[in-house]
Amino acid sequence: MAQQHGIIVLFDVENALRTRSLDGNTYWFDNMKFLGSSGVGTEQLETIVPGTYFLDGSQATEQVLNWLPAALGSIPPTVPRNYLAEQARAEDRRTLEELASLSAEGGVGETEVKQLQRRVGKRARKAESGRGLTPAKLLDVTGKATSSTEAYNYPAPVITDITGEAVTEKIIYPAQYGSPDMIYDGWYWAATVDTSRPGVYAYTVHVQLHELVERNDELVWESVDLTCESSLKIISDPKRNGFTGAGLGVLPLPPVPAAG
């Protein structure tokens, strides 16, 4: 069975949108540091891909890379996608209940109306180009509705393509896959790796961020397409047991204590 390599990319979306660049605004992590991955937590990650041959000299199976993007300082992508919608609906319900309570007490004044407007928050629509996010209410990083265009939860970055040397040299074969997982809208990027050609290979990740802009008194999500780079290092070390450091096989059993 192919070994799964997870690569998490954290994006400083706010600064990336301001500078229109991902240089210095990405933080890469993988689960292969114990085998020699370098640059973990920086934008110079070099992911180790081991296991070209088994200990008996036979060709090992291909490896699989999985990329998981996330926005730094935003609501974690590990919550279900319906979380944001549920929070928005809950805020609407609370506001309607308070409005009914104020009406029953003798009417709603201007001050109360303004307070309710702030609580309800603002809604951003899709850009006229048709690209970007679907219309949605603005939430802050705590999941509460907000009217502020300066303190809102950034949508998760979206990977749109993977190119570069590793692809053109046919070292990795990336593709977008469907999944029942609710975390990433049912889609994620993965790639199989040809481990028979040791070396260091760079690749480019194409990313779509979303920027909130105000036009004609309306808030609009506009997409911003940027790129960032990383690399993988295929090594010729044989596959080995991560628990024992030895070759593949059954795990050693602890000694059984004597009865009595």
Task: Kindly describe this structure.
- The structure is a single chain.
- With 260 residues, this protein is α/β, with parallel strands linked by helices.
- The chain is built from 4 helices and 11 strands; from the N terminus they run βαβββααβββαββββ.
- The strands form 2 sheets. Strands 3, 5, 6, 7, 10 and 11 form a 6-stranded mixed sheet that branches. It has a 5-stranded mixed sheet with strand order 2-1-4-9-8, with no helix packed on it.
- Helix 2 (82-104) packs antiparallel against helix 3.
- The longest helix has 23 residues, at 82-104.
- The model has no long low-confidence stretch (mean pLDDT 77).
Give the helix/strand layout.
Layout: E1 4-11, H1 13-19, E2 26-30, E3 46-49, E4 63-71, H2 82-104, H3 110-120, E5 123-126, E6 136-137, E7 158-163, H4 165-168, E8 172-178, E9 187-193, E10 199-215, E11 218-234
Parallel strand pairs: 1-4, 3-11, 5-11
Antiparallel strand pairs: 1-2, 4-9, 5-6, 7-10, 8-9, 10-11
Helix pairs in contact: 2-3
Attribute tags:
alpha/beta; Immunoglobulin-like; 2 domains; 6-stranded mixed sheet; 17% helix; 33% strand
CATH H-level homologous superfamily name of the largest domain: Inclusion body protein
The CATH topology of the largest domain is what? Answer: Immunoglobulin-like
In N-to-C order, the SSE pattern is: EHEEEHHEEEHEEEE
Return Rg in Å: 24 Å
Q: How much of the residues is beta strand, in percent?
A: 25-35%
Label the overall shape. elongated
Number of strands: 11
